[in-house]
Amino acid sequence: MGHPPDLRGDSVKPPAADSATTPFRQRYGASPLHLPLALASFALACYAGVRLLEGDALGVALWFVGAAVLHDLVLLPLYAVADLAVQRLLGRGAGPGARTARAGVNHVRVPAFVSGVLLLVYWPLVLGQVGHYTVTTGLPSDVFLGRWLLITACLFAASAAVLAVRLWSGRVRRGRGGGRPAPG
Fold first, then answer.
1. What span, in angstroms and rounded, lies between the C-alpha atoms of 105 and 72?
2. How far apart are the C-alpha atoms of 90 and 101, rounded to whole Å?
3. Which whole number is the average pLDDT over 113-129?
């Protein structure tokens, strides 16, 4: 049986085996190191799962289901709409500034993602809902919101600085002759 035809009607051929391809890679599809690393990561995940479920298995299962439902039904639509708003705000046209606009979107996405992960991990402290951490951290519970906001502001400022340097260096390269026609 041959390979299925592609959309143009030509037959799709498997990639040619070069001299460096081993029989293991041809059969398995990846480096020989991939298999033991994948098995080790599965073993570590199973160990962590068993340890996690030793205490309150039903509570952990409910937490995972609740987290999945919260993410899929509430958070995903929220950050999809926010991402779409940022893309529209910064422009998505096909003109000469489109590449800059796409780069600008990523300079908003990355600090927003890191800030969101920090909020997700430390939300009880950030929202001041847990007072008994004062003994553990040595800090009053009302300082975490301000610090999270400061970290978020620093992330966005650093991202804006990186974008400004990228834009400036791109203009400097174009100004040095990158876009001029050759004399002659």
1. 23
2. 5
3. 88
